[in-house]
Amino acid sequence: MGVLLRGGQVVDPGAGLAGALDVRVRDGLVTEVRAGLAPEGDTVLDVTGRLVLPGLIDLHAHCFAGAADFGPRTDDVARSTGVTTWVDGGSTGAGNFEGMREWVLSRSRVRMFAFLNISAIGLTYLKIGELNHLAYADVDAAVGAARDHADLILGIKVRNQIEVVGEAGLEPLKRAVRAADAIGGRVMLHCTNPPRPLAELLALMRPGDIVSHFLHGRGHGILDGNGKVSKEIRAARERGIVFDVAHGRMHVNFPVVRAAFAEGFYPDTISSDLTSGGAAGCVKDLPTTMGKFLSLGMPLPDVVRAVTANPAKAIGRAGRLGTLKPGAVADVAVFELEEGAFDYEDAHGQHITGRHRFVPALTLRAGEVWWRRLAA
């Protein structure tokens, strides 16, 4: 018949669901969420004492980096960390997106979408910036590829970092905006060490566009000369710019995080920017990133919202993904929230000791048990 998750603590702030609630899923959809549900022929999974969350949405990861170094393990990583939807953050451009579609996206069970890199070569060879040669930022080619793969491509990614754009300045971002306008999609901006003050980049962006790596510690960032979140950054959020963590190997600095949190400036979305190198280093995975931000003082409901309802909205799937509301796709992530002393590291080798960590226990993908750590 279906699956009944019984005895867990539901946390779904996007749908206003919280507390000791049972969750019934059938035919790939959530059908009921309330206390005391009877089995009615369902397979009962006892999740007593564990958190029951909507399946996680990682808004920024890389599944085709180096054409091979992460893609083959995409499903293994996703299912064992509660991630049921993965968004590739510009690994490929117009010249090689079809390869990623054929070899990774079409063969993975994790739900996948992508932002197309404005550079036609994508992130093929990171030692040389993909926009050092500006001709790679081909708007017409990007628009054509995005239209050809409109079922998967959500918008346009651009890395507007000094080491990547060279003398091109803000021109790659301007081209990314033009391409996104043409396809009706969003822009995802990599803003670490930008060539101009971050406010100038944000002024080119539109409501719904995404700023990745905003908590970095290199070059122009979100803080003003007094160490406060600048008024231009706050104004950008007020007009609808989405601020995404996109941790990665180089993009989270604990002092910047603390300064932002001291003013209540939390991320809209928490993502991993995961690559094989990041998985082996300070990033680990999305639940580790969640534990890091919980330990830094972000409230649990806000952490959960930032990996469920908010990224679902950012990719145009609000109410369908990232929620346990009846009628939504039955993607579910069950975690134990362990207490103790846990080491967390930022991208600059700085460490904190956190009191909590998220330990994956069970993942349902479209109503089916996809992965299980403990007998349930």
What does this protein look like?
Helix 3 (139-148) packs parallel to helix 5. The two termini are 18 Å apart. The protein has 376 residues and is of the alpha/beta class. It has helices at 74-79, 97-103, 139-148, 162-165, 171-183, 198-202, 231-238, 254-262, 276-280, 286-295, 300-306, 309-314, and strands at 3-6, 9-12, 17-20, 22-26, 29-34, 43-46, 51-54, 56-61, 83-93, 111-117, 153-159, 186-190, 210-212, 242-244, 332-345, 351-365, 368-372. The strands form three sheets. It has a seven-stranded parallel β-sheet with strand order 8-9-10-11-12-13-14. Helices cover 24% and strands 28% of the residues. The mean pLDDT is 95. The protein has two domains: 3-53 and 326-340 and 349-372, Roll (Urease, subunit C, domain 1), CATH 2.30.40; 55-314, Metal-dependent hydrolases (TIM Barrel), CATH 3.20.20.140. The chain contains twelve helices and 17 strands. The longest helix is centred in the middle third of the chain and has 13 residues, at 171-183.
Question: Layout of SSEs?
Answer:
Layout: E1 3-6, E2 9-12, E3 17-20, E4 22-26, E5 29-34, E6 43-46, E7 51-54, E8 56-61, H1 74-79, E9 83-93, H2 97-103, E10 111-117, H3 139-148, E11 153-159, H4 162-165, H5 171-183, E12 186-190, H6 198-202, E13 210-212, H7 231-238, E14 242-244, H8 254-262, H9 276-280, H10 286-295, H11 300-306, H12 309-314, E15 332-345, E16 351-365, E17 368-372
Parallel strand pairs: 1-6, 2-7, 8-9, 9-10, 10-11, 11-12, 12-13, 13-14
Antiparallel strand pairs: 1-4, 2-3, 4-5, 7-15, 15-16, 16-17
Helix pairs in contact: 3-5
